[in-house]
Design a protein that fits this description.
The complex is a heterodimer of chains A (about 700) and B (about 525). With about 700 residues, chain A is mainly α. Chain A is built from 27 helices and four strands. Chain B is about 75% helix and about 5% strand. The chains are: A mainly alpha (about 700), B mainly alpha (about 525).
Chain lengths: ~700, ~525
């Protein structure tokens, strides 16, 4: 289908929302009142997010309502497009939007494509997005930057849709950088807190490293494929088409570029999706308001890297070495982040590292060629991780801005809905059947198992699988730890806070319930081979990407499948049970005594608690030497060497000229004047000359 | 109608009027004259190449026939863009100066208009001597503007600026004479025709090229000829800094194209690797030093150096994409850089300092300013859909085809531009307005808001519809690139370049089957 206008409306709806809140926001909420709230908000927080407990005012309902409604509109239009897609028969299920010529020099249109892959992402972004918008109305009520917040949030949805809907890599890049901007603005939303603005800046700059890599990858692609369009345009070659591949090979794409390109793309994806070595920005990004963490830093934006890899999977498949690197990066990140999550005390930090870890799983799936499984995990993870973040937001809201789990406990009776829905999220992410996470994680582990047995990265020891399995156990452990420390045991807060604790208003708990439902059920879409349930998800994505790599598709025997399923269930249950038992008997909710923690410096606990000192390492190895070097460039190289040479030369000339022209004043302005006079004389002379010649 | 002569005459006459009338009237004259100039300049968008030559609106009169010096004016696509930019930035600067310049108004506006006339003359001139005269003459008003209305160390800055450029120009004069001896003409068109049939001796070509290249490198502020730039930009009055960085520096980049690449394509190809190296050094060096500056104006000055490095890289990659990008980027940089300087000027005068430490908390204090400055910051770090992106992207895309490693290095510049701009933005805008000096700062007034709005509109116009501007340059780019024969050196032609060189419109990328080229 060509020249469909509908995709434009999907994209423009949130942009319109952005403009409404950006330009008219001031009319919704009287300024004096907002200022009053702002002052209040800044007092009663502990530095994270602003919390007041006023119910949303009518102006806030209007502002947030418009933003929510427009994202909801996008969601409904995305559903329409989803069904339109279903009506297309044949192999190529694609709807192209109408286009305008954006960069004619390279024949580049601004155009969208809706195919199963982008359709899936659109539904997740706008679906989960509208719930989080709704939740935000309650969460942000009374914040002085209320309309600004919704303007940014709409802007984010706009750019995220560009990212997944672009029909070529440049529109993707627009979205790619755009979500980085929205993320920057939202992380630094509390502009008067240095920690927040620092975190925003860090996120943008770290992402820019990935973006630079993506740019170079784009240059290589242009060099060899001659196009940025995925599927070509006017029957011409595209990056993903067979014809495009042929053109590229004729141009000499093989042997170096075929490896270099996916590696650069991997670095780009590692930036956006917070993988080693660029994951460091994501934990800091928790400085942003919690709904932002749910939408941008868990459910949607951070899956952009996975989307990129899945979208360009033919480029990755062309290089087995690059695929292996993807798998190893993913698994290492998954493992490292899970270990860090074990000891974090900030509820959002635990979830942040959990997100990094789960994204690592998705990279692992991509690396073993199971792109469909990766997307399936993107899909299920979006629900339960958004749920968990919003749940933690509800807790933080109740606790008056407190995020430290050491100061929580015993909240289960006071926050019944939050607690119940968060349990669903926890069981889902831990991989307890039949919740959503079980299906998607199991699929990834099965593929990792099959890959090793096919002589992939590891050997017949199935190393990828075993490490992935350990991560599953760790996940179950740290999530149970989070639940226990937050909701059970003895209360560890003061009386004043205790009086304040309350369940969140409906505008906040309705999204929690709405996300809990799919977190329970969507797993079945992935099917279950053992029960002979077909994978609806697989069938849907088939035109884009394969569920499993073709050669591993049939290679997992049924008994191996039973083995994998039972092992992963054992890991989950063991993780939960072990954490539960240990924490039930723990004093004050702590497993280790303070003395043990101190004496354990250099121990695994210490490394985990201090995040393996990666930030400190980057600071010492890159940031500080870089600053020193720049200062040296400025004060020594530039001022003394370059400018010094110039001054030296001019000094020599000056002394020469003093000898020769002692009678001159030495003021440059006199020279200038002389020159001006000279020009005038020449011009006048010329004019006279002309007249003479004329005669 | 001799539209180009008109273009130069309007500001020139304006300058004389401004100097003669009463001070209060002079700024009115300046606005009218620069506004009219802009209208005439916009008329140049009707440019089409004439036949085989990229030049349009040609005016040719004998002037000094004995010396074969002619009064020849004409523009090609790139010149049209840069002329429109010149007219725009001058109008903006006069707008900005409106209620800010209170002393010696007559002299000020007369000099600004004289500057505009001479710069426009240089962009239109198709005779080497005529160009030289304009090129030199514009130094004079610039010198006085810096020296009389500048900051504390204005005299040193002005002198350094003046001497630096004059020394460069002398080398250019030698090259001009050399070209005359070799070809017997000062006319660009005639020289080009002559060189088509009888090529220069390669050594002489290189020498002549070197003279031009150094003069223009100084004007551009290319490493290592840049040390005049930070002092000058920091000391000049804001409106003049905007002109210097937004327009005058383009005399250098434009000259590199007009008198370097377009006249001496063979020498340009041979020099290209060295100039590309200097360009990449400029990009990174400027960005790194910008990141440790204490003064906001100096951050912008080094940032300007870094961005112009991109332009030079784009020119000397000698591929169609890169060169198109370079011309677009000249326009973009003119608007963004001038815009940033105006904004810095606005808060600088409110606070009495442009030291970054002097600020903080302006987001709350000056909300409208904060948003406009944010957009210009994003434009400076080349965020897509702002003007900075398309130009920078085309430059890098094109130069990757001929200089992949240099381009990969240059691409890291996008990281560092984010580092210094976001760092500055954070320090200036975020936080709380703690000091009383900041608390006294008021948001933009109506005139400032309007100027900001126009800048923002241009940022997005150029970012979303760059085709309106790049279409103008296609013809000239195609000719210039094919003359250098750079692409012939490649064993394989990049797909995109191949399409562009052969049939720009009819065949979309990826369609052409490639042939191996020797």
């Amino acid at each position: 289908m060509e020249n469909n206008l509908l995709p434009w409306f999907v994209v423009l709806a949130p942009l319109i929302g952005f403009f409404i809140n950006a330009f008219m926001g001031g009319n919704f909420i009287p300024r004096t009142k907002a200022v009053h709230h702002g002052a209040e908000a800044s007092h009663d927080t502990h530095g994270h997010g602003a919390h007041t407990h006023s119910a949303p005012t009518s102006g806030e309902w209007l502002s947030g309502g418009i933003a929510t409604a427009l994202v909801l509109l996008s969601f409904l239009l995305s559903i329409v497009l989803y069904f339109q897609l279903g009506t297309i028969s044949g192999e190529e299920k694609r709807i192209f939007s109408s286009a305008f010529s954006w960069i004619p020099t390279i024949g580049l249109p601004f155009r969208f494509v809706v195919d199963p892959l982008s359709s899936l992402m659109m539904l997740v972004i706008t679906g989960v997005g509208s719930l989080i918008h709704l939740y935000s109305i309650g969460y942000m009520a009374g914040n002085k930057g209320f309309t600004r917040y919704f303007a940014y949030l709409n802007l984010f949805v706009f750019f995220m849709l560009l990212l997944v809907m672009g029909s070529n890599l440049i529109v993707l890049f627009v979205g790619w950088e755009g979500v980085g901007l929205a993320s920057y603005l939202l992380i630094g939303f509390d502009y008067d807190r240095v920690a927040a603005t620092n975190a925003g800046k860090k996120a943008f700059i770290v992402n820019r490293i990935g973006d630079a890599a993506l740019l170079v990858a784009l240059f290589i692609i242009y060099r060899y494929f001659g196009s940025f369009e995925y599927f070509g345009i006017n029957n011409m070659a595209g990056v993903l088409t067979e014809q495009g591949r042929r053109v590229a090979i004729e141009n000499g794409y093989l042997f170096t570029s075929d490896y270099l390109t996916p590696m650069l793309l991997l670095l780009a994806a590692a930036g956006k999706s917070a993988q080693i070595p660029l994951y460091v920005w994501l934990p800091d990004a928790m400085e942003g308001p919690t709904p932002v963490s749910a939408l941008i830093h868990a459910a949607t934006m951070v899956t952009g890297g996975i989307y990129l890899i899945c979208r360009l999977h033919p480029i990755f498949l062309a290089s087995p070495e690059a695929m292996s690197v993807v798998a190893v990066v993913g698994l290492t990140t998954a493992f490292l982040a899970a270990v860090i999550a074990l000891t974090q005390t900030d509820i959002k930090k635990v979830l942040a590292y959990s997100t990094v870890s789960q994204l690592g799983y998705m990279f692992l799936a991509c690396g073993v060629g199971a792109f469909g499984a990766a997307m399936f995990h993107v899909f299920t993870h979006a629900f339960f991780k958004a749920l968990l973040f919003l749940g933690s937001g509800s807790v933080i809201h109740a606790m008056n801005g407190e995020q430290d789990m050491r100061k929580m406990g015993d909240l289960s009776k006071k926050l019944r809905i939050t607690c119940a829905t968060m349990w669903i999220g926890t069981l889902a992410i831990a991989g307890i059947p039949p919740l959503a996470g079980f299906f998607s994680k199991d699929e990834i582990l099965a593929n990792a198992y099959a890959d090793a047995s096919m002589g992939g990265l590891g050997d017949s020891n199935h190393l990828l699988f075993w490490f992935g399995w350990v991560v599953a156990g760790l996940t179950a452990f740290y999530m149970t730890r989070l639940m226990w420390k937050t909701f059970y045991g003895k209360p560890r807060y003061d009386n004043e806070t205790a009086r304040h604790i309350h369940e969140s208003p409906p505008v906040m708990w309705i999204p929690l319930v709405a996300l809990a439902i799919p977190s329970v059920f969507v797993g079945w879409l992935g099917g279950m081979k053992l029960l002979h349930i077909e994978s609806a998800f697989e069938k849907f994505l088939e035109p884009n990407i394969h569920w499993r790599k073709a050669d591993t598709l049939l290679s997992i025997p049924e008994n191996a499948e039973i083995f994998i399923v039972s092992l992963s269930v054992i890991a989950s249950i063991a993780g939960i049970a072990y954490a539960w038992l240990r924490y039930r008997n723990a004093k004050n909710g702590e497993l280790l005594t303070p003395e043990k923690k101190v004496s354990g410096s250099g121990s695994l606990w210490d490394l985990s608690y201090n995040k393996f000192y990666v930030d400190e390492f980057y600071d010492a190895a890159i940031v500080r030497p870089g600053r020193k070097f720049a200062n040296w460039l400025w004060r020594t190289a530039d001022a003394r060497m370059v400018d010094g040479t110039v001054n030296g030369v001019s000094g020599i000339i000056a002394s020469l000229s003093r000898m020769l022209a002692g009678w001159q004043s030495g003021y440059a302005r006199n020279y200038a004047l002389t020159m001006l006079l000279g020009v005038v004389i020449v011009v006048i002379g010329c004019l006279f000359g002309l007249r003479m010649v004329g005669r | 109608m001799p539209i180009l002569t008109l273009l130069i005459l309007i500001p020139a006459i304006g300058a004389i009027l401004a100097a003669l009338l009463r001070p209060a009237q002079s700024r009115m004259v300046a606005v009218v004259a620069s506004g009219l100039t802009l209208l005439v300049a916009l008329g140049l968008f009707g440019y089409t190449p004439t036949g085989n030559s990229p030049f349009g609106f040609i005016e040719e009169r004998g002037w000094l026939p004995a010396l074969q010096i002619g009064y020849v004016l004409g523009v090609d696509g790139p010149a049209v863009l840069i002329i429109v930019l010149t007219a725009l930035v001058h109008l903006f600067s006069i707008w900005y100066s409106w209620d800010r310049i209170t002393e010696r108004q007559r002299e000020y506006y007369a000099l600004v208009l004289a500057l505009e006339a001479t710069i426009l003359g240089a962009f239109c001139a198709l005779d080497l001597i005529l160009f030289y005269i304009f090129f030199e003459a514009c130094l004079v008003p610039a010198y006085f503007l810096i020296g009389m209305w500048g900051g504390r160390r204005r005299i040193q800055a002005a002198t350094k600026f003046f001497v630096y450029t004059v020394v460069g120009s002398l080398l250019m004069l030698a090259s001009i004479i050399g070209l005359y001896i070799a070809t017997g003409s000062f006319s660009v068109i005639e020289i080009q025709n002559h060189l088509k049939t009888t090529p220069l001796d390669p050594t002489i070509g290189l020498l002549i090229f070197a003279g031009f290249a150094i003069a223009f490198a100084v004007k551009t502020g290319l490493f290592p000829f840049h040390t005049w730039l930070p002092d000058t930009y920091a000391e000049a009055p804001t409106a003049v800094t905007a002109i210097l960085s937004g327009v005058m520096a383009k005399l250098g980049t434009f000259g590199l194209y007009r008198f370097g690449i377009d006249i001496l394509p063979d020498a340009a190809r041979q020099f290209a690797p060295y100039i590309v190296a200097l360009a990449v050094i400029s990009i990174l060096y400027g960005a790194w030093i910008a990141a440790v500056q204490r003064d906001a104006k100096r951050v912008l000055a080094y940032s300007s150096m870094s961005h112009l490095g991109f332009v030079v890289l784009g020119l000397f990659a000698l591929t169609p994409e890169a060169m198109t990008g370079a011309f677009l980027q000249m326009l973009n940089h003119g608007i963004t850089s001038a815009g940033c300087f105006y904004l810095m000027g606005m808060i600088g005068e409110r606070r009495g300092s442009t030291n970054i430490r002097a600020f903080g908390g302006l987001w709350e204090q000056m909300p409208v300013f904060a948003r406009i400055f944010l957009i210009l910051t994003l434009s400076s770090i080349a965020l897509p859909l702002t003007n900075g992106f398309v130009g920078e992207f085309l430059i890098l895309l094109g130069s990757y085809q001929t200089f992949p490693w240099a381009t990969a290095l240059a691409t890291t510049g996008v990281i560092f531009s984010a580092v210094y701009m976001l760092w500055m933005y954070q320090r200036v805008m975020y936080g709380r307005p703690i000091t009383s000096a900041v608390q006294r700062m008021t948001d933009m007034n109506a005139s400032e808001k309007a100027l900001g709005a126009v800048l923002v509109a241009l940022v997005f116009l150029l970012g979303i519809a760059p085709g309106w501007f790049t279409d103008l340059t296609n013809f000239a780019v195609k000719q210039a690139v094919s003359k250098t024969k750079m692409l012939d050196d490649l064993t394989q032609l990049p797909v995109g370049a191949a399409n562009f060189i052969r049939t720009p419109e009819s065949v979309p990328p990826g369609a052409v089957q490639l042939e191996k080229r020797r």
